[in-house]
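Our preliminary data section would be incomplete without showing what the modeling component actually yields. Below, a chain of 120 amino acids is followed by its predicted structure, encoded as tokens that our downstream tools consume directly.
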Amino acid sequence: MKKLFAILVLLTILVSLFPAAQTAAMPEYSTRVGEPCGSCHTSAAGGGLRNARGQAWVAQGKGNTVPTLTESLKILGVKLTTDPADYVAPTTPPPTPAPLATRYERKMMLLMWLLEYSGN
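Predicted structure:
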């Protein structure tokens, strides 16, 4: 038990002596391309994960302009195919439904059926 405790203390000391390297956002990229950090990163403050525009910008070699979203998707190999019929209202009106029977009409139909009924 004492050996386990000593090993844990030793590991804690070693981990505290060698802190993990931290990455920092590069605001000079934002200045160079003339767009805010949020245009390439998922966080508006910049740093961290990149969105599609940021990924395409890196794929192109970090040029002086960030591609638009449509250009970014093409660069990343996303194929957008849409059918305009999915978004456009039909030009022909739908067929008119049959009129609903009123309660009076239903009562009269039942009365006529009963009058015509001859029994068992």
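The radius of gyration is 36 Å. The chain has a mean pLDDT of 82. Preliminary results of this kind motivate Aim 1 of the renewal.
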